[in-house]
Amino acid sequence: MVVEYSREEELERLVHELKTVKTSDWEFHDKDNSVYSTGKGLNKKVVEEISEIKKEPDWMRRLRLKALEIFESKPVPTWGPDLSGIDWENTSYYNRPDERKTNNWDEVPDQIKDTFTKLGIPEMEQKYLAGSVAQYDSEGVYHNLKKVWEDKGVVFMDLDSAVQKYPDLVKDYYCRAVPASDNKFAALNGAVWSGGSFLYVPKGVQIDMPLQTYFRMNGESTGQFEHTIVVADEGSKVHYIEGCTAPRYEKNSLHSAIVEIYVKKNAKARYTSVQNWSKSVYNMPTKRSWVDENANMEWVGGSLGSKVTMLYPSSYLRGPRATASNLNISLAGPGTVKDTGAKAIHLAPYTQSKIVAKSISIEDGKAIYRGLLRVNKGATDAKSRVQCDALLINDESASLTFPHDEIYDPTATFSHEASVGRIGTEELTYLRSRGLTEDEASSMIVLGFLDDVMREIPMEFAVEMNRLIKLEMNKLGAVG
Amino acid sequence: MTTLEVKNLAASINGKQILKDVSFTMHGGEIHALMGPNGAGKSTLGYVLIGHPDYVVTHGSIKLDGVELVDKLPEERAKAGLFLAYQTPVAVQGVKLSTFLRMAYNQLHPDSKMKIQDFYDELKRNLNKVGLDETFMSRSVNEGFSGGERKRVEILQMMMLKPRFVILDEIDSGLDVDALKMVAEEIKKYFSDQVGFLIITHYQRILKNIEPGFVHILVDGKVVMEGGNDISLRIEEDGYDWIRGA
């Protein structure tokens, strides 16, 4: 019991700190800061221009052009949510905020610095992080890695810088797990990617503090196409965190990222992301990990906001005894479609996967779970557990579940559990009759619904999610 | 002195009139019993007093120290000092009892906030008093609790949240003899000249342990008889027919 108090007190302290950092809306926006943009629309010239601005090696330029061809040849997927609102012609695919990149916070341009400060980034870095990268629109503007890790050979910087500094290392991993041919949005990223992080953790190096990248999309009708690569070499351990926000605009923006994570033999990697998009963003990332023998991959995701999100982090369990877990929380507010889930592909014996997906739908918000579990022949004694829980807050809220299983090995054991609950007048009234306001009561029920997931995730993340959910619930005013 | 005054109260649910004419006045330092046969509207009165949104007040008033509560939200009534121990307490998945009670306490008593450790120490002591162990603190509110455990937790909430007017709806149901004794003991301890109790019951069982000074009989949505504890004793003997006939 004593331990429990201290965790609660710690949470309260953290909540207080985060509140003092700034609870103001993240939907504020700065004036257009870009000093250079490729303008509206996408063609070969735009792609070549991006490559030229970045002074990229020829191999990367060729990969971009190839990806553009694939992008143009693939139709917009129609098997999921309606994507007809993406205005391909009127999107700017590359917007550069400033000439320089820096590892000195003081040199970041004032307005951009203010934005990140409002979001609490420098404070987070000081307190909890081993290193951080900040990206504003298309480019990384700041990166820093604590010296102790640099000395151990850890590489952490934006991917553009890594292409210049460590081209061979980047080449080994770039688009291996997620080839441009994977889907239309991955191809788009391959053509116009800019920014994202490159994190390499050498053999045996175990980093005990997380590393974080913060993405901020500022421009209207822009796209953000970061490409992130995390490599946890044999026996290493790393926790990488991403935070994303964008201001709200009338016109739609597009976020189409790629995240590739390579977890080598006996390594452990955890990827945590908190995405808090405004309601004008189409969020279409492709995230995938390769998990080798006896290695462990953990995906932890919280996804709030956006107009449409399609996100299915995947784990390819490639070596014996590789394990992966996926915890995802989706909040579909009014007007939002969240089509999220996870994929676990068992390619080797004794592999294990666990997927826990929790969704909350408010008003006409729609939360869809779409998942894939595949066990290949020869992946003997594979185990998998999938749990999807949905909470509906209004009568018109909706939740759908599309689990898909492809089991080719008879020794596999797997289970699916699903539940749907609705916040009822009885629960709300009971809590209110003890003095809680309707908002407090419904946030408490929502956080209660998420409690079993919150227990398993890092505390800073849990606190941040709690805070965002409370903000989101408060913004809605009366619920129920 | 603090006073709860219910006057000509009528209320309906889904268009069905349940309460037709209910009037009574109670003061701090008094224990009242509300008795009546099944379906008389006793539990409805409890819900209407705390402002359950499913019930519509069609007539009358509920005044606490002169302040009209009929238009007030449930949380505002709780802040005014009303508390209903539910007949069937509601389970709330994932909401930890200790967190919930602390948040509620801070809402109800913003000027006398307690340190987290002190609050939990008091919670532990009170859990012991109602015969529950400390593990209940970190369990979800009423989830998986037995009927008896839920009733004990209602009393625990009363002890922690310190209301001025307490409505106990069939608090004895689900409790065995020993548990009832224990709960009655805590109710008596909580009772003072600052606190008023309205005990809703259709058996006389709990009233043996807590002697009410005032008894109101509700039949078919109306208060048809009022008096002292002798009425409850006669009901124990003869049931409600003699009242209905009267």
Instruction: Indicate the structural class of chain B.
Output: alpha/beta
Strand content of chain A: 25-35%
The radius of gyration computed from the alpha-carbon positions of chain A, rounded to a whole number of angstroms, is: 22 Å
- The fraction of residues assigned to DSSP E strands of chain B is 25-35%
Tally of helical segments of chain A? 12
Shape of chain A: globular
Please state the structural category of chain A.
Answer: alpha/beta
Envelope shape of chain B: globular
SSE run of chain B: EEEHEEHEHHHEHEHEEHH
Oligomer state of the chains in this structure = heterodimer
Keywords:
heterodimer, A: 480 residues, alpha/beta, 14-stranded mixed beta sheet, ten-stranded mixed beta sheet, 12 helices, 26 strands, 28% helix, disordered N terminus, B: four-stranded antiparallel beta sheet, 37% helix, 27% strand, globular
Provide a brief overview of the structure.
With about 475 residues, chain A is of the alpha/beta class.
Description:
The complex is a heterodimer of chains A (480) and B (246). Chain A is 28% helix and 34% strand. The two termini of chain A are 34 Å apart. Chain A has helices spanning 2-21, 44-53, 58-73, 110-118, 121-128, 147-151, 159-165, 167-173, 184-192, 425-432, 438-454, 459-475; strands at 36-37, 95-96, 131-136, 139-145, 155-158, 197-201, 211-216, 223-224, 227-232, 237-245, 253-255, 258-263, 268-277, 281-283, 286-291, 296-305, 308-311, 314-317, 323-332, 337-340, 343-346, 352-361, 366-375, 383-392, 398-407, 413-422. Chain A has twelve helices and 26 strands. Chain A is of the alpha/beta class and 480 residues long. In chain A, strands 5, 6, 8, 9, 11, 12, 14, 15, 17, 18, 20, 21, 23 and 25 form a 14-stranded mixed β-sheet that branches. By secondary structure, chain B is α/β, with parallel strands linked by helices. Chain B has nine helices and ten strands. Chain B has helices at residues 42-50, 74-80, 97-108, 116-129, 147-161, 177-190, 205-209, 229-238, 241-245, and strands at residues 3-13, 16-27, 31-35, 55-64, 67-68, 82-85, 165-169, 196-201, 214-219, 222-227. In chain B, the strands form two sheets. Chain B has a six-stranded mixed β-sheet with strand order 6-7-8-3-9-10, sandwiched between helices. In chain B, strands 2-1-4-5 form a four-stranded antiparallel β-sheet. In chain B, strand 9 and strand 10 form a beta hairpin. In chain B, helix 4 packs across helix 5 and helix 5 (147-161) runs parallel beside helix 6. Chain B is globular and about 55 Å long. The two termini of chain B are 35 Å apart. The model of chain B has no long low-confidence stretch (mean pLDDT 92). Chains A and B meet through helix 1, helix 10 and helix 11 of A and helix 2, helix 3 and helix 4 of B.
